[in-house]
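[INFO] parsing input record for Signal peptide prediction
[DEBUG] input buffer:
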Amino acid sequence: MGKSGRLLRYLWAGPYTVLGLLLGGCAVLFGARMQRHDGVVEVSGGLIGRTLAKLPPTLGFAAMTLGHVILAIDRSALAQLRLHEHVHVRQYERWGPFFLPAYLLSSLLQLLRGRHPYRENHFERQAYAVVAEHRRLVRDSIRG
Ligand SMILES: [Zn+2]
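[DEBUG] output buffer:
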């Protein structure tokens, strides 16, 4: 895609990116590290990250994506989840302002069907499928 297409995708996901930068900026004030990687701003660690890491798994999270910003509890979580979160970045680029409502609606529909609202969420399934496919390709290329 050309430069204008790239700009459009950033603008389309922009409202969430602004939110991510605000949250990430707060995290940086409390010692988090901010860096750019593959066209995405990554924020990891600091006091907020350490606090979230202490929450029970059902309440906590290791990483989340807001537009072109990935927020992670620490650098190892960031490295582990980068590919998964980048699928979400692509989803934000496609859905723009509609991403979060669509994401929540998908969780709600799963819940109403008696399924797990996170694992069975359409967007999460897509992210997990991409990571699984990537791992399969890496495994196959190592085998030769
Ligand atoms: Zn996810």
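[INFO] The radius of gyration is 16 Å.
[INFO] shutting down worker
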